[in-house]
Amino acid sequence: MTTYDHGAPMGATGLPQPPRWVCVLLGLFMVFAGLMVLGDIAFFTVVSALFIGWMAIAAGAFEIFHAFWTKGWGGLVWQIILGVLYIAFGIVLVSQPLTGALLLTYVLGVALLASGVVRMLIGIGRWQQGGGIMVASGLFGVLAGLVILTGFPTTGLWVLGLLLGIDLLSHGIGWLTFAWTPAARAA
Question: Which spans are transmembrane here (predicted)?
Fold first, then answer.
């Protein structure tokens, strides 16, 4: 039998909010992990490439399994090809994580540059509706992409680790901030 704590404050999703101690613990752990990653960004760039590689292999294997499991749906050959590509990509990342980190960083640079240009164009087209924020966001993306691409291949040795560290640190600070909001204090 399942019981629910109807006394816990509800979040926007209608689900009970986690207790404050859970938010604090998660926040502290993520801040610690972020600082560890920022302490050796080159090492964690390689770790990131290895993790992405193993996940790509798992996703490819599942895609192939899914193709045979649901072969009546159609697209069997395309699903198998996609699964094989995922596995091949994962094997490259796992067998040569430094080369994989370079590849991922290059793709990230191109994606940031392209998405920044698109955001700037959308912002210019919507200038009257507050498109200036979109232009600024796009400019930031273009600059980030250019920093990565103009410094390549050297940037491939640190960009992924730096972004992972910043993400973990900001996520941890977000959880700690949430833990001290009035809504979380009631929990």
Answer: 21-44, 50-69, 76-95, 101-121, 133-152, 158-180
